[in-house]
Structures are given as structure tokens and as C-alpha cells.
Design goal:
The complex is a heterodimer of chains A (290) and B (546). Chain A has 290 residues and is mostly helical. Chain A is built from 10 helices and no strands. Helices cover 40% and strands 24% of the residues of chain B. Classes of the chains: A mainly alpha (290), B alpha/beta (546). At the A-B interface, helix 7 and helix 8 of A face helix 13, strand 15 and helix 14 of B.
Chain lengths: 290, 546
């Protein structure tokens, strides 16, 4: 998962972090959900009982557990289970990649803005600019230039989250910069970049993780929105978002077509949140001795 | 006003064989303590001795998994260990008032102070708004707050630390309790403010005939101001009696240690030691000083007010001789910490110069050179060590920055440094969170020594420590000075510890030097009345008298 790779040197503490993670029941539940989802995404071509795009008008709106369709079929008679397995694939991809963009760009910029006051003016004004610029317009613009695709949706969603990640890291940096251990490092003639990387960043990790776990549900839903507008994933490729928005139209006839992909989105978000919480606690050095 | 029981000897609060557990671990092992009506009793002990746990047990406010497992706490014939929550709420505040430790966090920042005192009065049953207001102003006036009518409408952040503590005292007294528990009420304050607050608390308590249970780590303060002292160690009362008797003839080894460690007591002894040391220094005195501060001025721009500045340091000059210690003493706001930052090259003086070994922090190369000679040790051992680093990584950080040695040689160096500061080598792989305050401060000292620094800037380096730990760290600093010929710039608000370490003293007030001289001169014949005030404020006059 991207969040873990956000530059934190786990060092010899690794065993301890692992132990702390293992001892958190909720964290393990979260990890279990995520592993299940990841397995579904990876193994989708192998385990899906039907091709996800196979249309069968004679068998539309089937309830669950009929004629070999475990979760039933949608308005075009496509197998909901198979579409969900492929849809989870898209959602996880969007979640992880967008967060990766937000972290890779937002964290370094946040550190720079928080640590060097002279850069803060420039970076923060740019951030304000980005916040004022609706991400939907960015997504439409990207789609207009490159044609609608999943990649463009990921870029638009990720870029939209950069200012939020940046502000969180900047705030943490301002706080940590005022601490005595940073002053000590300055008195040792450590360079600004070194202080940011070695002293500030590791102490920001928990804030970054919390922010990342908040971002993931937002972008998973965001992908649904973009796909619904036709500038995200292109039909007939299934995604949880498309399934959910399609099912709105016939929710009175076949509520299960909305319930199952909805549940999958909830589970993905829950998994990331639970695991993120446990990870944050495990990485917090002030809990290390307990 | 509560009527006092006719017999003076009747106990107001009587604790018998009190046992308290946290989880399954017993932390208070059978404490007996008695407070008579109108009596002032002190519980003295270092952190972890269980003194605050006893206090919380009396109020039945034990945190987390803490619970009373045995014994009784009888107040006025009423066992508090058996009382239900409803009864306890009445006891807290109405019968026992608490003056908490930290005035910064114990007032609601978004509520006017008058309203906070009013709240206590309301809880006491004073329903009428007008009389509540009148009583609030009376209480503030009693607590020594000037212009109480105007200031009742102000918020806590508009008050200084000392004034906030007075408000907390007013809140505690508002409900006219029979007993006041003061939990280290002044440890967050400057010495002179501390003395004024304690005097005031004492007067108020005496006037009202209230009993006082005073919790402190400072035997000096306790002996000065109470009728009886109970010394606690590891959850037990090891000594209990008349303070003068305890000082003169301590029965328990721990009490003897506490008395020996109290800075004010060892002062005479300290002077002898300093004299011996300064003779050694004078031989080297002909050399140029390691730190020369010449006519330094530092102005800060005031936020939001164009062109307005505030002068933090005002034409200050002094020097630190090689191998000697110069102490800079002053209250908060005197500019002493700004001076430390200037000496470390972290701030540029607005005027004047700072020379280390004859060189100034002019350019990048000079900064690099000088920072190898000068290293800081800060006040807060919790904030000055990066919590994500191991101890080894913390200590070898300066070596890494200066690209000195390889992995193995750095490891050896860290082991040597741990030996020097008397820490076990096996803590190298632990993190700062697992160490005690004293151990952390040793780590900070080891880090300051890693580059073979010649000058160490000690910015309140022992102020946050318990008396005994403080004593040990001061001893370590003296030993290191002797072995390595280190020079110290010792910045502190506490004149008592100055005598243990310094050769020269510079007294600062509002950015200016008011007095400067050898430590004996300043202590025995202070020239400036401000210095006299500081000296008088040192707690433990009765310690020295004995």
C-alpha cells in the first residue's frame, strides 16, 4: 500500500511495529478486508463465473441465486458478481494511485512550504489557486485533451487531493519545526533538506496516514462520479461507481443491483480506515514502550 | 466559613493504610497521614513517589485503571472511600478545594475568569447573580489581583502565569472548603512569582483557618511553609514529622539524600567547590575567552504593527572563560533564551557581536566550523530528542551531519559517549520515549559532546528535573567539565542551582544586565536590589538555617 511507502525509515523498529499491528484486532480486520479485496481484484479473471460484459437481455433483473447468477443480474442481464470483481479492481487502482499522486507531490511541497518561510508564500498561493479550481473542470479538460480514460480520471482525482495533503503536512511541519529537536539539529549545522527528511517527515507520518485514509473513500466515490459523467472508466468496462449509478435507474425493480456494489465500496473504505488507524498507532513512537 | 472544631487536635482528614492499584500493580502501599483542622501538611517526594496518586485518591479522581484497594480516608467522620459519586461531588470543591499544578491548562481559555469563579460560587449554592458578581470581585481582590472589577471580564490569556495561579486559588477558596490541596502550585512559575504566590496562599489559608495539604517535590519549599512534612518514596511514607526536626535529624536515608540534593543547602559547600575550581581556571584565565558577547542587541519586529519593534536583548556584554561556567540568570522574558540562540548562531544579533574562539558566525564556513565547538542542551528533555530515532541514532546524528567516521567507528563513539554520561550501553537501540527525564537529559548531553564541543549552552538544562535527578545531572556536568575542560554557558531562572555549577554570574532583567560578577560576590554581597529579590525568593531558608 502506498501509504506505508511515504518515506518513513522503519529501521530496527520494524519488528515492534509488526507486533503492534498484529495486536490490534480492528487493524487486522481492516487488513483482512483489504486482502480479500486485493485478492478479488487480482483473481477476477480466474474466479469470475461469467464474462463481465456479456449481455443477455433474456435474463435481466434476475434476483440473487438464480440460474447460476450468485448475485443476480442487472438491466442488461450481465452477471453482477463478475462485474463487481472487475469493478473492485478499478476502484482499488483509482484509490491507491490517486493517493500516491497526492502523497508524492503533496508531502514534499508541504515540507518545503512549512520549513522555508520564503517558499511558503508561493506554494500556499498556488495551493489556494488549485483549491479554487474545481477538479471536475480539470477532469473534463484532461478528457478533452487526451480522451476519456481511467488514467485521466486518476490524475484528476489525485491532483485534486494534492492541496489537502499539502496543507496537512505544512501544518505538521510548522508545529514540528518549533520543537527543540529541530533547533538542536539546526545547531548541529544540519541542512534544511536533511532536517525535513530525517526529523520532520518521520514525525508527520501519522498525519499523512490519517489523511490518506480519508482521501481513499473520497476518490473511490469520485471515480464513480467521473464515470457517471462519461469521463472516467468507459463502458462496458465495469467499475463499482458505474454499477452504482446505473442501478439508480431501476432501484425499485432490482435493489440488489445497487446494494452489492455499494457494500463493496463501503468495505473498501472501511478496510482502509481500520488498517490506517492501526498503522498510525503502530508507527507512533510514543506508544512504543507499552 | 466553616466552624472549626473546638479541639485543635481533632483530625480533619485521616488516611489509614491507604492502598491504591493501577491495574494489578500496587503503587501506594499503605499510607497513613493525618491533617488536623487549620494545619498545614506537606507531602514531599519525587515524580513516581505516589504523592499525586494519594491526592487523586482523596478526591477519588484516580486516572485510568487506578482504584483504591484498601484502607480508609476519613474526613470529618465520613469515609471517602465508601462515598458514592454523588456524595463525592459535594466533597470536591465544597469541602476540599484543589489548586492544580499548571495554571496554563487549568483555566478554560474561552471563558472570562470572572465567570469561572462565578461557576464555583454557583456550585456552592450562591444563586443570586448580583451577589455572585460581588463575591467574585471580593475573591479576586483577596487573591491579590489588581483592578478586580475590570479584570473579571478578561480571558485567561490576558493574565500572566502568576496571575492565573491566583485565579485558580480564588476558585478553590470560592466554596470555602475545609481543606485545600495544592498540587505543586508554583512549579510552573518563576522563582520570585513563586515566592509571592506561596506567601499569599499561606496568608489566605491562615486567615480562613483552612487546612492545607501541600504536594511538592521541593523539601525546601515544604519546610518553609508547613507545620508537618511527610516524605514519600515508592508509594510509602518514609518519614513524617516536624519539618525542623526532619531537617536537623533525618531518620531515613532517602530524606538525607533529598536534603543533600536540595540546591540551597549545598550552597555553602558549593562555594568551597567553586573556589577550588576557579583557582584552576584562573591559571588558564590569561587565554582569550571561549565566548565573548559584546554589546549585543536583538530587536524583534512586532507582528501586525509596521515598523514597531520590541527589544529582547539590550546592549549585553559578558564572556565565558575557557574551562569555566558563566551563568545567565533571569526570569522569563528577560531575554536570556534569545541570548542562547544568538550564541548558537541560530539568530543574528541586531547589533554588537558574538565571538567564539575569536570568530563570528559570519558565513557558511564559519558557521560550520563554530557549530562543531558549540552545542546546546535544552530544558525539555521530552521535546529535544526526536521521538522516532533510536538513542544511538540521536547521539551519532552530529557525526553523520559532519560525515565523520563509518558505521563501526560511529558505533564505538556512541558507546564511549554513553559511558561518559553514565548510561548503560544497552539502551542504544531504544527510543527516547522509553527513558526517564534524567536519562533523556543525559542523552542530550552525550549528543552535545559527540563532536568534541568545547562550549555547551545549557538552556535551563536542569529546570525540568526532580531535585535528586537535578543533583545528579549537575554533578555529571561538573565531572565532565573537569575531565574534558568544557566551558558552559548556563542559562537558568533558578539562582539556587547556579551556585552549584557557575563561576561567574550575569543577572538579566528585561533584556539588560543588572549585575555581573563572581558567584561568591553576587551571592554574598548582591549590589542590585533585583538580585537581592531573586536571592530572597530561593526556597528553603529554613534548610540553610539548620
Amino acid at each position: 500500500m502506498t501509504v506505508v511507502e511515504s518515506g518513513h525509515d522503519l529501521g530496527s523498529n520494524r519488528g515492534q511495529i509488526w507486533k503492534s499491528l498484529r495486536s490490534s484486532t480492528l487493524g487486522m480486520v481492516g487488513a483482512g478486508i483489504l486482502m480479500l479485496m486485493a485478492a478479488a481484484a487480482i483473481l477476477a479473471p480466474l474466479v469470475a463465473p461469467h464474462p463481465p460484459t456479456h449481455v443477455n437481455f433474456g435474463l435481466s433483473y434476475q434476483p440473487p441465486l438464480t440460474r447460476g447468477y450468485v448475485l443476480g443480474t442487472d438491466d442488461l442481464g450481465r452477471d453482477i458478481l463478475s462485474r463487481m470483481l472487475y469493478g473492485i479492481r478499478v476502484s482499488l487502482q483509482v484509490g491507491v494511485l490517486s493517493v500516491a499522486i497526492a502523497v508524492v507531490v503533496g508531502v514534499p511541497l508541504g515540507l518545503l512550504a512549512g520549513y522555508w518561510r520564503w517558499l511558503d508564500g508561493i506554494i500556499s498561493r498556488l495551493t489556494d489557486l488549485m483549491l479554487a479550481f474545481p477538479f471536475l473542470i480539470l477532469a473534463v479538460g484532461l478528457a478533452a485533451i487526451n480522451g476519456p480514460s481511467l488514467n485521466n480520471a486518476v490524475i484528476a482525482l489525485g491532483v485534486a487531493q494534492i492541496p489537502i495533503m499539502l496543507r496537512v503536512v505544512r501544518g505538521e511541519t510548522l508545529r514540528i519545526k518549533a520543537s527543540d529537536f529541530v533547533t538542536s539539529a539546526e545547531a548541529m549545522n544540519a541542512s534544511g533538506l536533511r532536517i525535513m527528511g530525517q526529523h520532520v517527515l518521520p514525525n508527520c507520518t501519522s498525519a499523512i496516514i490519517v489523511q490518506a485514509t480519508v482521501i481513499i473513500p473520497v476518490v473511490v466515490i469520485g471515480e464513480a462520479l467521473l464515470s457517471f459523467l462519461g469521463i472516467g472508466v468507459q463502458p462496458p468496462t465495469p467499475s463499482l461507481g458505474i454499477m452504482l449509478s446505473d442501478a439508480q435507474q431501476y432501484i425499485s425493480q432490482s435493489p440488489t443491483a445497487a446494494i452489492f456494489p455499494g457494500t463493496a465500496i463501503v468495505l473498501i473504505c472501511l478496510g482502509f480506515n481500520l488498517f490506517g488507524d492501526a498503522l498510525r498507532d503502530a508507527l507512533d513512537p510514543s506508544n512504543a514502550n507499552t | 466559613m466553616t466552624d472549626l472544631p473546638s479541639a485543635d487536635h481533632q483530625a480533619l482528614l485521616s488516611i489509614r493504610d491507604l492502598r491504591v492499584n493501577f491495574g494489578d500493580t500496587e503503587v501506594v502501599h499503605g499510607v497513613d497521614l493525618e491533617v488536623k483542622a487549620g494545619e498545614r501538611v506537606a507531602i514531599v517526594g519525587q515524580s513516581g513517589s505516589g504523592k499525586s496518586t494519594v491526592m487523586s485518591a482523596i478526591l477519588r479522581l484516580l486516572p485510568g485503571s487506578g482504584h483504591i484497594t484498601g484502607g480508609s480516608i476519613v474526613m470529618d467522620g465520613f469515609d471517602l472511600t465508601q462515598a458514592d459519586d454523588r456524595a463525592m461531588r459535594d466533597v470536591r470543591g465544597n469541602r476540599i478545594g484543589l489548586v492544580p499544578q499548571d495554571p496554563a491548562t487549568n483555566l478554560n481559555p474561552s471563558m472570562k475568569v470572572g465567570a469561572q469563579i462565578g461557576d464555583a460560587l454557583k456550585a456552592h449554592g450562591l444563586r443570586d447573580r448580583v451577589s455572585r458578581k460581588r463575591r467574585t470581585i471580593e475573591l479576586m481582590d483577596e487573591a491579590g489581583i489588581p483592578e478586580p472589577e475590570r479584570r473579571a471580564g478578561q480571558f485567561p490569556h490576558e493574565f500572566s502565569g502568576g496571575m492565573r495561579q491566583r485565579i485558580l486559588i480564588a476558585i478553590a477558596l470560592a466554596r470555602e472548603p475545609q481543606l485545600i490541596i495544592a498540587d505543586e502550585p508554583t512549579s510552573a512559575l518563576d522563582v520570585t512569582v513563586q515566592a509571592r504566590i506561596l506567601d499569599h496562599l499561606q496568608t489566605l489559608v491562615d486567615d480562613h483557618g483552612t487546612s492545607l495539604l501541600f504536594i511538592t517535590h521541593d523539601l525546601g519549599v515544604a519546610a518553609d511553609r508547613t507545620d508537618r512534612v511527610a516524605v514519600m518514596l515508592d508509594g510509602r511514607v518514609v518519614e513524617n514529622g516536624d519539618p525542623q526536626e526532619i531537617l536537623r535529624n533525618p531518620q531515613h536515608e532517602y530524606t538525607r539524600k533529598l536534603i543533600a540534593a536540595a540546591p540551597s543547602v549545598s550552597a555553602t559547600e558549593g562555594v568551597a567547590r567553586v573556589t577550588a575550581r576557579s583557582q584552576g581556571v584562573e591559571k588558564r584565565g590569561a587565554l582569550e575567552p571561549i565566548l565573548l558577547v559584546q554589546d549585543v542587541v536583538k530587536d524583534y519586529k512586532l507582528r501586525g504593527q509596521r515598523g514597531q519593534t520590541i527589544r529582547a536583548v539590550d546592549h549585553v556584554s559578558f564572556k565565558v572563560q575557557r574551562g569555566a561556567t558563566t551563568a545567565v540568570v533571569g526570569e522569563s522574558g528577560s531575554g536570556k533564551s534569545t541570548l542562547a540562540k544568538i550564541a548558537l548562531g541560530l539568530e543574528q544579533p541586531s547589533a554588537g557581536k558574538v565571538l567564539i574562539n575569536g570568530r563570528a558566525f559570519n558565513d557558511r564556513a564559519a558557521r560550520k566550523e563554530l557549530r562543531r565547538c558549540v552545542q546546546p542542551v535544552f530544558q525539555d528533555p521530552y521535546g529535544s530528542l526526536n521521538p522516532t530515532f533510536t538513542i544511538e541514532r540521536l547521539i551519532d546524528e552530529p557525526l553523520r551531519i559532519f560525515r565523520m567516521g563509518d558505521r563501526t567507528s560511529r558505533r564505538t563513539r556512541v558507546a564511549d559517549l554513553l559511558d561518559q554520561v553514565a548510561l548503560p550501553r544497552n539502551i542504544a537501540q531504544r527510543r527516547a520515549g522509553e527513558l526517564s527525564g534524567g536519562q533523556r537529559q543525559r542523552v542530550a548531553i552525550a549528543r552535545a559532546l559527540a563532536l568534541d564541543s568545547e562550549l555547551v549552552i545549557l538552556d535551563e538544562a536542569v529546570s525540568a528535573l526532580d531535585v535528586l535527578v537535578q543533583h545528579q545531572i549537575l554533578k555529571l556536568l561538573r565531572d565532565l567539565q573537569e575531565q574534558l575542560g568544557l566551558s558552559y554557558l548556563f542559562i537558568t531562572h533558578d539562582l539556587a542551582v547556579v551556585r552549584e555549577l557557575a563561576h561567574h554570574v550575569v543577572v538579566m532583567r528585561r533584556g539588560q544586565v543588572v549585575e555581573e560578577g563572581g558567584v561568591e560576590e553576587v551571592f554574598t554581597v548582591p549590589q542590585h536590589e533585583y538580585t537581592t529579590g531573586l536571592l530572597d525568593a530561593i526556597p528553603g531558608a529554613s534548610l540553610t538555617a539548620s
